[in-house]
Amino acid sequence: MTRPHKPVVAALLFAAGLLFGTGAHSQDSTAKALQEYRDALQDGNPAELWEIKGEDMWQQPRGPNKVSMEKCDLGLGPGVVKGAYARLPKYFKDTDRVDDLESRLVHCMVSLQGYTRAEATRRVFGGPGAAADMEALVAYVSSQSKGVKMNVALAHPREREAYQMGQKLFYYRGGPHDFACATCHGEDNKRIRLQDLPNLTSKKDAQRAYTTWPAYRVSQGELRSFQWRLYDCFRQQRFPELLFGSDASVALTMFLARNANGAAFAAPAIKR
Question: How do residues 20-70 score in pLDDT, each as one tens digit?
Fold first, then answer.
């Protein structure tokens, strides 16, 4: 059996102590302890393993056409990955739509490598015993924007339309619990158990939250993309399933990414 990373073990032990030892502590001391827990997690991020795999997949000839992804245009020209994620989502003339990273990767897998869309999206999220190639590609490409400031444009009418749609989706209430994204992420100082909930209507929180995804989830032992983050939020809201790469998912990403403009990208990060 593979032994977990020492920093991960330390962080888990720290979290256990935090969970069972905060009864007499104030809100401020709990917040401080939570930050110390997060800081402990950052030492030795297993996301690097996904980045290495993703880089190999980017360069390796694959699919029916036996070509690599090195001619995939992510918005800065064929094959350019440095800084590309910090400018996504954006409008692409060849697809005549706004694409985020995941939907753009699917386009390249289909148009360059010869996969069908069904093949390219067969396994987009990793699970027990089986990692997802898509998340490895996301880890590699996003890692090439570390330190680059977010700069998502609204220059094209389709980009402005996507932003407005994403904003509406963020505030839309529905489902059996009458939830919206804003229910959990529209006010300051909210938390579920050990997880603080960023107020995504606040620029500071929006910047901090968006720029730390994708992320390695310690509790799941998986690298998770931003498409997965939205998918899981919809699941918890008891909304209908959010389809991978759908216009709705890209629009919501556009809204959140644009609100993070100006912040230095810092992912793949590591989270509880």
Answer: 444 445 556 655 666 676 666 666 789 999 999 999 999 999 999 999 999
Residues 125, 267: Cα–Cα separation, whole Å: 18
Domain count, the chain: 2
Q: Do residues 5 and 262 touch, judged by C-beta distance below 8 A?
A: no
The SS3 call for residue 181 is helix
CA–chain centroid gap for 208, Å, is 12
Q: Residue 259: left (phi > 0), alpha (psi -120 to 50), or beta?
A: alpha
Which DSSP letter does residue 245 get? T
If asked whether residues 182 and 118 sit together in one domain, one would say yes
> What is the residue whose two structure tokens read 């901090």?
208
**In this structure, what CATH number is given to the domain that contains residue 57?**
1.10.760.10
* Residue 96 shares a structural domain with residue 143: yes
Same domain for 115 and 152, yes or no, is yes
List the domain range (segments joined by +) for residue 88. 45-271
- For residues 33 and 83, membership in a common domain is answered with no
Task: Assign 127 to helix, strand or coil.
Answer: strand
* Dist. CA 48–CA 56, nearest whole Å: 13
pLDDT band at 174 (very low <50, low <70, confident <90, very high): confident
Same domain, 26 and 122: no
The reported pTM is: 0.84
Query: Taking a C-beta distance cutoff of 8 angstroms, is the pair 69, 137 a contact?
Result: yes
Catalytic residue numbers, as ranges: 233
> Going by C-beta distance under 8 Å and a sequence separation of 6 or more, which residues neighbour residue 159?
89, 90, 91, 98, 153, 254
